[in-house]
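Quick check before the chapter quiz. The format below is the same one you will see on the exam, so make sure you can read both the input and the output lines.
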Amino acid sequence: MNGRLTYIYGAAAHAWQANESALDLKPQLQAAWGKRFRRINHFIELTLIGAKSCLDQSQLEIEADCDLYLATEQGNVAGVADITRLLLKEQEAPMPLAFLNISNNMAGFYLAQSLKLHSSNLTIAHHSFPFETALDLAMFNIANSYRATPSALVGGVEECAYPLSQHRQRMNLATDTPLAEGSSWLHIGAGYPQHALACCEWVKFFADEMELLSFLKQAALPPLTYLAGGDNMSDEAAVNFAADLNICGIYKCANRVPFHTTHCAYTVASFISEKRGHSLIHINRDKRGHRYAALSLSVI
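Here is the expected output.
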């Protein structure tokens, strides 16, 4: 590592509560980009809307060598479910474009093509910490880049498959769990501190709660630091962490949305827009309650 700071130039938090049928995002997509996109699936629509919103709010123009990191847990789950049903239940072949659009990095491809980027394009899937993993990798590559001012667009995107009852079963959730779809993004990089909204200090992963607390108690936390817990942490657990660390308060987004597995991206982007001059420690726990991921950022 060469000690470069990772600055955040733009942030956008988008989430939509899931109902019993998929939202029609085409009007919002066309309004955002000023053009129509043909033959793309819902997951790609979510990606394009969130990323464009982030760049529209960014204090710095995106450069052609800006890298893309798309984080997801479920990926193109609706498209995969539809194609599986066609193949196994109806014994029909899927349409060629429907099959191509569920490839791992097709959403990133459409985004890179629309932004005219010539850079790396990664889709990162992780069972518990998709956004934290993508952000950690992006920050590592920025810190070790040969470029003078490397940058990246990092987002967390999740969709639901319908009917929601089957989607909850697929995710091993209670039958009454509210769900959401999300597309939240950060535009980050090294250099141009005058254009920064915030600075991300670190992203780290821990084997258990003891290791996490030991690290945080030794960290020099700013006095105006809030703590936010991920969807797999109870409010009580977040309060206990805050008490152990002498944190000034618990952060909850002004517009709270139901469960989606890249909620970390939504929380971080929301904090940047709502808490100027404050810092955030975001703690997420895996579904089994063993491993943890945490990140630290300060809003300028």
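If your answer matched, good. The longest helix spans residues 42-57.
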